[in-house]
Amino acid sequence: MRFASFVRPLGVAFAFLIGLTIAGAGLQAADALGPEKCEKCHKPEIAVWQGTKHAKSFKTAHKSDKAKAILKAVGEKRMRRASLCQTCHYTVIGGKAKEGPSCESCHGAASGWFEIHNNYGEGVKREDEPADHKAKRIADSTAAGMIWPSMTYDVAANCMSCHGMTQAGLDGGTIAKMIDAGHPINPGFELVTYSQGSVKHRFYPPDVKTNADMTPAELSRFFIAGHAASIVAATEALKKSDHPKYVEAQNARIAAAKAALDAIKGSVPEAGTLAGSPSEANARKLVSAIAGKDLSGAVGGMLPAKGSYK
Known about the structure:
Elements (H helix, E strand, L loop, with lengths): L35 H4 L3 H8 L2 H8 L4 H9 L9 H7 L1 E3 L2 E4 L3 H5 L6 H4 L13 H13 L8 H12 L8 H9 L10 H5 L20 H22 L6 H21 L4 H8 L3 H10 L6 H4 L11
Antiparallel strand pairs: 1-2
C-alpha cells in the first residue's frame, strides 16, 4: 500500500467537505515538499516509514531486471525519470524523484496545506489549540488538498489507485505492455492487511510513543471502506483494458468486495446499494453510514489475521 498515517479518527465528516477524487500520487507530482518537512512534528511516524519497503525502494526498485523489462516495454529508459513510474513509485519534488512513496504520496502535496496544517493560532502550542480553531484548521487543510487519516474512503482509494493499476492516465495499451513485461497487479490487495503491518504508524496523545493497534470495531470499518474503494476502482478499471490478466484481477477484486458488502447489507442498506451500483458517491454514502459502528460481528471472520499483515 502507499504510505498513509493512520491516527485517531478526526471524524469522517471531513471526508465529505470537498469532492476529492484521489488518483494515486499524482496529487503530489509537482508540489510535494518531502518527508523531511513532516519530521519535526512526526518523528515516530517518519521512523516507521524509514523502515518500510516504500522508503527503501527508492534505492532498489529501478535496479531489478523486471523494472528494466517494463521500462523497455513502454518505451522508457530510466524509472526515476519516467512520469508513468513517478506517479506511484516516487515522491516527486520539483519534477524529480527524490524519495520512494512517502507522506505526501497519501496525504496529498503539502505545498498548499502545510502552513495551514501547522498553524495552531498565534503563539499557541498544539496541545493548547482551541477546539473551534482546530476545526477550522482541519477544514481549511482539507480544502487545500490534505487527505486526513479520518478520510477513510480517500485513503483507501489512494492506495487502490496504484496497487490496483487503476491510476488516472494509465491507458489500456500501456497496461497491456506493462503486464506482459511482468508488472504485478496484486488482485489480493486488501486495505487492513497492507496498512496495519510494516507501514502502521498510529501514535496518539497522550501516549505518543506507542504505535497503537486498531480496535476490532475500527478494523471492521476500515475493512469495509477498503472494499468500498476497491469495488469502485475495479469497476472503473474494467473500462480501461481488456487484457485477460487485468480483467481477471479486477473481477477478483469485485468478487471479494461484494462478499464483504453482502455480510453487512442486512444492517447497512448502503452496502447493498454499492454492490449493485458501484460508484464513488455510493461508496462515500456507505462509509458515512458505518461511521462509529462496530461491524466486527458481521465481518470479524473475514478480517485478515494479524500475523498475515504485510
